[in-house]
């Protein structure tokens, strides 16, 4: 599904005039899987909005190993913080599927934030949620064992019962600060206990309550 700028949370509620002006200033492109959209360290001169497809965010360690930070799906905008502080991209983002993106000039985004306080407020909420998520991930990595971290990751994504592993078990491990081997060991343990079923490219959650107890989280149907 191809989204529009209006589907991005930070632009929600904008009038057609503002949205039309943004769209006119944007540059839209389609790329195949494997295309690098931005590289860590390069200047963030545009707000990159993913309108269709899936992208992974990664960094390369001093040893030359890629660390997957996140897998992101449309609609989402990349590196909003870097744009605000006139800094570089914080990660390299690579298309995992065919994608469509819109490039919005930094100057146009900053002018919009100054003119539309509601957009600035929504952006702040988005950034706050990002910081909270990072804080939770760092805390999990520091105080939880790998099975508990894997269970937490699954519970937070199992609303439909099926959790895609877009970047494989290695990608899951990179997101929670664990090795692929330890992630596989945890998943196999859950499978033996009847909590999940491991399939090609996904995990089917069979017993979300048991996983939630292991993760010390409310069960999905209790979280609301």
Automatic annotation (TrEMBL):
<dbReference type="InterPro" id="IPR000595">
    <property type="entry name" value="cNMP-bd_dom"/>
</dbReference>
<keyword id="KW-0805">Transcription regulation</keyword>
<dbReference type="GO" id="GO:0005829">
    <property type="term" value="C:cytosol"/>
</dbReference>
<dbReference type="InterPro" id="IPR018488">
    <property type="entry name" value="cNMP-bd_CS"/>
</dbReference>
<feature type="domain" description="Cyclic nucleotide-binding">
    <location>
        <begin position="10"/>
        <end position="130"/>
    </location>
</feature>
<dbReference type="GO" id="GO:0003677">
    <property type="term" value="F:DNA binding"/>
</dbReference>
<protein>
    <submittedName>
        <fullName>CRP/FNR family transcriptional regulator</fullName>
    </submittedName>
</protein>
<dbReference type="InterPro" id="IPR018490">
    <property type="entry name" value="cNMP-bd_dom_sf"/>
</dbReference>
<dbReference type="GO" id="GO:0003700">
    <property type="term" value="F:DNA-binding transcription factor activity"/>
</dbReference>
<dbReference type="InterPro" id="IPR014710">
    <property type="entry name" value="RmlC-like_jellyroll"/>
</dbReference>
<dbReference type="InterPro" id="IPR050397">
    <property type="entry name" value="Env_Response_Regulators"/>
</dbReference>
<dbReference type="InterPro" id="IPR036388">
    <property type="entry name" value="WH-like_DNA-bd_sf"/>
</dbReference>
<dbReference type="InterPro" id="IPR012318">
    <property type="entry name" value="HTH_CRP"/>
</dbReference>
<dbReference type="InterPro" id="IPR036390">
    <property type="entry name" value="WH_DNA-bd_sf"/>
</dbReference>
<dbReference type="Pfam" id="PF00027">
    <property type="entry name" value="cNMP_binding"/>
</dbReference>
<keyword id="KW-0804">Transcription</keyword>
<feature type="domain" description="HTH crp-type">
    <location>
        <begin position="144"/>
        <end position="209"/>
    </location>
</feature>
<dbReference type="Pfam" id="PF13545">
    <property type="entry name" value="HTH_Crp_2"/>
</dbReference>
<keyword id="KW-0238">DNA-binding</keyword>
